[in-house]
Structures are given as C-alpha cells and as structure tokens.
Amino acid sequence: MEEKKSPFPDKYAQVKGILRTLKLDQDALADKFGIKQASISKALNGANEKTFKKIVQLLEEEYGVNSLNQHLESGVAKDIAEIKAELAEIKAAVARIEAHLNKK
What are the angstrom distances between the C-alpha of 17 and each of 10, 23, 30, 100? Predict the structure, then answer.
C-alpha cells in the first residue's frame, strides 16, 4: 500500500522538532491518546492526518505551543504569492510574444 505524501512535509518535521524539545516521545503520546505507538508514528509521517491534528491540538492546548496552523498557512500564503508573481511574469512574456507575432 502506497503511503500518502503531504503537500506540506515541513509541518511534520516542525511537530517532530517540537516534540523533541518538549521531550515527548511517541510512547507517551500513544498513552495519552490511548492508541498504539505505531499510530503515532504514522501520524508524524503523514499517513494519519486525523491523529496528527490531535497531536497539534494537544501541543497548542496543553503545552502552549503557538498555533502551528497559522505558521503553516503563512508559509502557504508565501508560496501562493510567489506562484502569482511567476504567473504574472509568464503572462507578460506571452503578451510580448503575441505583440511580436502581430507585427509580422
């Protein structure tokens, strides 16, 4: 079975780093949620989004971690802004080519 790849792999690395900083291991998280450690591992590697969201919520509510979602959304917004800028450049180039072709 092929594992799902997240479009935002940085969020998993970020959460893993926070867990290391807080000295929370996967076994402790599994105990806290009443699930198996393997489920935590899958969540932290992008294969279980529902459990991953629970982990993020736990970090925000119980450990006072600033909103990870806001941080991730700001990163996505930056990517979108870059894509829009590139698209504008492409449109301008197409317009120049069309103008050049119309002169002939």
Answer: 10, 10, 17, 53
CATH topology of domain 1-65: 434 Repressor (Amino-terminal Domain) (1.10.260)
Note down pLDDT in tens along the chain; length 104 residues. Answer: 444 454 555 888 889 988 988 899 999 999 999 999 999 999 999 999 999 999 999 998 888 887 665 555 555 566 677 888 899 999 999 999 999 898 87
- Phi first, then psi, for residue 41 (nearest 5°) are -60, -45
- The C-alpha angle with vertex 27 and arms to 24 and 33, in degrees rounded to 5, equals 90
